[in-house]
Prior knowledge:
The structure holds two protein chains of two kinds.
Chain A: H1 2-19, H2 21-45, H3 47-55, H4 58-76, H5 86-108, E1 110-116, E2 122-136, E3 141-146, E4 154-160, E5 163-180, E6 190-197, E7 200-207, E8 217-220, E9 223-227, H6 233-237, E10 244-248, E11 254-255, E12 262-266, E13 272-278, E14 281-285, E15 293-294, E16 306-310, E17 319-322, E18 326-331, E19 336-341, E20 347-349, E21 356-363, E22 366-374, E23 378-380, E24 383-386, E25 389-396, E26 399-404, E27 409-413, E28 416-442, E29 449-459, E30 465-471, E31 476-478, E32 481-490, E33 496-504, H7 508-527
Parallel strand pairs in A: 9-17
Antiparallel strand pairs in A: 1-2, 1-33, 2-3, 2-28, 4-5, 5-22, 5-25, 6-7, 6-21, 8-9, 10-11, 10-16, 12-13, 13-14, 14-15, 17-18, 18-19, 20-21, 23-24, 25-26, 27-28, 28-29, 29-30, 31-32, 32-33
Helix pairs in contact in A: 1-4, 2-3, 2-4, 4-5, 5-7
Chain B: H1 2-7, H2 9-18, E1 30-33, E2 36-39, H3 40-52, E3 56-57, E4 60-61, H4 62-71, E5 83-85, H5 89-94, E6 103-105, H6 106-111, H7 113-122, H8 128-147, E7 153-158, E8 161-166, H9 167-170, H10 173-178, H11 186-202, H12 207-215, H13 217-234, H14 239-263, H15 271-293, H16 296-315, H17 334-367, H18 372-408, H19 416-435, H20 442-467, H21 479-502
Helix pairs in contact in B: 3-4, 3-8, 7-8, 13-14, 13-16, 14-15, 15-16, 15-17, 16-17, 17-18, 17-20, 17-21, 18-19, 19-20, 20-21
Amino acid sequence: MGLMNALIHYYRKVELFFGNMKFAVFIITLFAIALGYGTFMESYHGTEYANRLVYKSFWFMGIQFCMFLSILFATLIRLPVKKHLYGFYVIHSGLIIIFLGSVITYLSGVDGTITLTPNLPARNIQINEDELKIQFPSRGKELSVSLPYSAFAKDLNYTYENITLKTFLPFAESKQDWVPVKIEDKSQSSSRYRIYTPNFGEFVTLSLHPQSDFANTQQMGPLNVHYMPPSLGPCFGENTADGLIVWNGETSGCLAPQKKDIKRQKGLSGKETIEVTYEGQKIRFLPQMSPLPLDDKMNLSENSPYRIFSKKLFEKSPHLFLFGKQAAFFDREKKSWETKAFEIGEETELPWMGFKIKLLEHRADAYPTMIPTYVTPAQENGQVTYGTQKAIEIAIGDQTFWVKTNDPVAFNQGGERIIFDLGKKNLLLTYELVLDQFIMDTDPGTNNPASYESYVTLFRGNAGSTKHHVYMNNPLKYDNFTFYQASYFQTNEGPFGSVLSVNFDPGRFWKYLGSLLLVLGSAWHYMIRKKTVVKPGVARD
Amino acid sequence: MIKFIFIFLMTVTQAFAQMNFCTSELETYPVQAGGREKPLFVLASETIRFMTGSDKIDNLSATEAFCKLSLMAFGMPLSLPVHIKVEHVDAKKLLGLSEDKSSIPATELEAKADLITEEVAQIKENNSYKKELNKVLQRLNAYRAIINARAWTVPLKTDNKIEFVSIAEFLTQSRVESVKDKASNPVKYLFEQSKADYLQIKGDKYLLEYKYYKWNLFVWALFSSIISIALFVLLKNKTPGTIFCILTIGLEIVAMTLRIMISGRAPITNMYETVMFSGFGALIISCGIYFVRKDIVFVIAGLAYNVLGLMMMKFANGMLDEGISPLVPVLRDNFWLSTHVSTIILSYAALALSWMLANALLLRSRFGNVSGKEYRYQVDLIYTCIKVGIVLLAAGIILGGVWADYSWGRFWGWDPKETWSLIVLLVYMAILHGKSTSWVSPKRFVLLVAGAFMSVMMAWFGVNYILASGLHSYGFSEGGAIFLGSFFIIQIVTLLICGVTLGKAKEA
Lengths: 541, 508
């Protein structure tokens, strides 16, 4: 029985350590400090960050587990039952039961939301856990990868076939960066400009590269900026009678035909067709209808590399055409098209009210794009304003790219389409909810909401349907789930949509039971009168 | 609208000019503002105080001033010197005010409104300066609303229902002319008629609020508390003190009952009301403990805490808003609101008693002489208060969990307010558990209890005034944060002064 004795010996040691009052004081204090830290983190960085950093982190769960051990062994060490400690036993068993109830909730509870758009059936519960869906439509296969609930950037090291999930960023902001291209193509160049007046200015990044996040046009107040391949620049400078430009999208070559180079004809439908000879070919267009050329059968040909357009369209309002190191615009005073060439860093005046332009960068060997970067989120007035994006870096073969929340990416690999979608985990209900109407009452004479109410119909397939009224403090209970009025939103069509929080809590009974024991026990322990110190010099009655 | 008003201006102006229209008689006229119906007196006082920081303008009562300013929209010539409150140093600088001035004439501010709007747009951080500028703009807007006759609303009977319209819409030419033959002064007739219609349909319940504010019961309770303390301390006979103590409780019950009747809910929904309820609760708890422990010191501590609360209600207007306004939807459940919040506030009240007794004992043993026996006795009194406090607090936190489960489906959500109430419980639990170890001697116990109330203040005020204001803005420049910061500093200094010598003093 030496082993038994040894076990008892070690058990006593464990019991003494965790059941010790000093350990209790230490762990309670530590728990309180961790909680205080959590509330400040919440205030600065938002609820989700605080949850990831503190409340739902492993170290915090460790503290809670130590609390549990302390409570458990403090009770065990005081056995067998002593009469004057009845209240104590009740309090501590209450706490143990609350703890166990919370573990049940943590392991098998559901806490999510369901978004109801008016008159649209919904059965999708969104759970607050991130996952990456990888879809292979041609194979009819879908893969879901749960992402870690971490506060910081996390390396995933997950591989499936030749897809590798590299880094997950729970909080990110996109920042501009240049990505090198494999084969340099001058017609896919990119530039960064500063366009400014004495009291206002903007950095403008424009790109022709198909993988860039930056477009080739941008609006700056009344000014429209267009970015075009450098080889088109000279055509814009030529002042021709019709202002027509023909260009070849494949070679980036262009022609500004003079009046004599254009043959005009009235077409059958009365529309005017023109014929231009360019690169040894006769090309026909319907310039008033389409930039596409006509084929032999007089149909618009999308496959042709040729396009036509008229500069006349851009003479009425301010349009600025940029070609890397060259700019073209219509000067309304001179009534002619002007071009200006400039080098990097050179200040150039534009014809509109003090506008100036400066080229900052011009590259064809790399394209600009927005790369997600980890940031610590920031909260202002109860709203997270910075670091709201999540992103995951994925590698397929030797290509890497980023997938951001609610912005699915389709990737072509040897003819197979693979779709990556970063979002929240979903749970499907076996029945459907339909929002019939959402009503928001306001306090009389103000716009302050007084109540939120959702009128919903619950469809149970063949079992028929029931009508329900969900509002604050009046949830809908069905199928072990409880649906609570949580939030609302305005749809594009006008009426309000509603968001219900959905909850399934199998630990509920235990938490209630434990709470009841805790309150009764503490009243028993503390309130039932025990020995009190007598006031000096006064006889007790 | 303004142009339209000018058409029949003559009629109305004459009507106003014929008599002294703006009298205190108007105070009892019903208005609708901020989502509630109330007497004009309340609206006028709240608005004038918000704008100017004072209850009067140029010796005119708030209602008279409010009325005279409103009549400016009808062409009544008037030059009331309205000075709009400006508090922040940088805001004064922006408006070209010298530092000793704390207000700017409304007309001058009007000219600088664009300047403020531009400045606000340029400040990225939501700091105290930006908040103050926004506040100044709000004050200016309140002023504009009055002088454009939009702030003052009047009940209008249509199909036996009451709807409120601004006086700009109320005093239309057709309406004034339609009653021209019925009265010598048509405007006065219209106002009286509208009040009579309101009373006929909705009754005079709104006048309770008028009485509530006019009676100033909490100020009388403040006097009565102070007198009671003085009588308990000075006289050997406890009867006179007891009479004033009961009077205090009575006054507060009447005042709170009025408030409950006006708002239709438990009086614990904003900072002002929780301070009010905690003062009252501390007094009731202290009287309760007195019946068990038979020591008048409890009642004195309760009265003293009640005085602190009443003083805050009277003087800390920047931090505690006295006004009654509608609740946000999520709190509109009277049963849970009443049970959960009142339990928590009562627990804070009991802990406040322990805090007062602990600080009193600290100061007495530092600057006076307390025998070992007396010290042990006092520690036991403090312990009694804490016991009541933590039982109530545990119950209150759990009731909060049940309410949250009932209305959001979550027993616990790590929301800062609930987390801090748990921190308070943990702090006191650590002290009570520590009391049984060698770590916490009776002297340390007193120090810890005196300091632990800072966690209560953090849970009660700090969550709203420091945590809720979010990133970068805890500049300790707004009312609540200044109050809390000063409280922490004073408490820590007291602990240091009393704690340092404790090391030398013998253990009791």
